[in-house]
Amino acid sequence: MKAKYVFTVLILLSCIFVFYLSKKNKVKNEYAFMERSGPVSASSEWLNAKSAIEKLLGDLRKNPNDNKTKLKLAMAYIQESRVSGNHGYYDAVALELLDDVLNENPDNYEALCAQATIMLSQHHFDEALEIGNKIIELNSYSAYGYGVLTDAYVELGKYNEAVKAVDKMVSIRPDIRSYSRISYLREIFGDHEGAIAAMKMAVEAGVPGSEQTEWARVYLGQLHEINGSIQEAEFFYLQSLHHRPHYAYAQAGMGRIEKYKKNYTEAIKHFTNAKHSLNDYFFNSELADVYQAMLKSANANNSLKEAISMLSVNAGDESESNHGHYSDKELAALYLKIYQYDLALEHALIEYERRPDNIDINQTLAWVHFRRGEYDQADKHIDKALITKSKNPTLLFQAGLIKSKAGKLNTGKKLLKESLNINSYITAELQWEAHPFLDGEKKIASQ
Predict the structure, then answer these.
(1) pLDDT digit string (tens) for 40-87?
(2) For residues 264 and 258, is the Cβ–Cβ distance under 8 A?
(3) What is the pLDDT of residues 367-409, one digit of tens each?
(4) Which of 15, 63, 172, 291 is 20 to 30 A removed from 357 (C-alpha atoms)?
(5) What is d(CA 44, CA 86) in angstroms, rounded to the nearest whole number?
(6) Cα–Cα distance between 11 and 427 in angstroms, integer?
């Protein structure tokens, strides 16, 4: 009996030990970081970030209830989500960490800022707006809070409110974040030169080589690219790659430059390098455009299907428990490219229900209706897309085609000409659509 008792105690102790180990490893397993791959895996930035994350994980293993450490780890993972593109994993882990912090202290300012950042990243703009207002209630001089409000208002199509929020933000803290938001709003309201000037200020306010600064520099290049100034755009993309080698969005920018020059092999290399550096569906979409220009339809379709798969994996729905990424606008655009118009309409309408006043959503829905031959519906939504007087040449070109097909030929031709005067580099897909209405009056630059 004594031996049996000793054996039972040993079994019990071993179970307790296994349970202890499982609890100890739970922190490691649940919150572990993902190794980067490709050239960026050897960067000093990643090695430093990895070392800091490993220390935080070690601290959590020692004290799993340390909310200060959880908050720091959540913030580190939000940054890593942005840099790596692995939003599906890092956003979910960061939200779990932030939930622990906010359950204990619902008014934790830093945790609310981090939570709002994730909501914006996942396109949960109503929730981001609600959190942003709470941040401002806690600190009426929070530039970060007004940045959250600016982004949420823009995405919800409340552009005048966004202007008020960013004015308040820049008055509190004129820096890279506020200048870049001013640039985006100026672009939305058709002030392209003002947008370029503000984005230059954003770049100058940042630290060369940091992810935030190079994002702003690449966007500055995109503003020139949108305007048809290809050489200027190339300058900023190359400058970004100098300051931050292998930066994915700069690589993609160079891919577009090479596409304009019809150097398709080089364009494919740049987009492929971008894919290896950062997990973003859009590189596949842009690769598909190159393959289409090369008349390689099979390759283009494969790239588009991969992009759809990437978006669908992390897609969110309307359930309270699901905080995945709302990606219906992006999916609608991809389904258009593979001629699945019913699915494109389904996803466009889902996003339209969420934010019916957003000009980009209305542009997407208008183009879906156009492709389906539903020109009256397309005309209605393109009017809403034009409400801010944006001078985006693709928007104006699509609007011109829609107006022309809807029987408003004079207005349509005027919009087509305006678009081409801004940027003659219009996609091959749109070139073919425009010829019946332009009557050879304006030569379109081929790609």
Answers:
(1) 666 777 777 888 888 899 989 999 999 999 999 999 999 988 888 888
(2) yes
(3) 999 999 999 999 999 999 999 999 999 999 999 999 999 999 9
(4) 172
(5) 19
(6) 71
